[in-house]
Amino acid sequence: MIGNQSVSIPKPPDSVTILWQRNPLDRRAPRTIVEASVIGSAKPCQRLLQNGMRYRDAAECLRSNGFEQITSERLGVFGLAVFVRES
Fold this sequence. Notes:
This protein is mostly beta strands and 87 residues long. It has one helix and four strands; from the N terminus they run E-E-H-E-E. 20% of the residues are buried.
């Protein structure tokens, strides 16, 4: 406590990293999640972050629930995206 004010440490941001893949034989195939990792919470999008789920659905849910996509990289048929939500 400093003076009459209490000091609290801010909550760290929620972070979601998604590794996705696309079928190289079908350019129209949707990107699917290979693996996703969450630090903090991904609610209410957690159910969309499972292996084999569509990347677009997960990304839209995250953005609609306060996450900002801070990076996206393509690695051949794979890609990596990072989303962050401030508390």
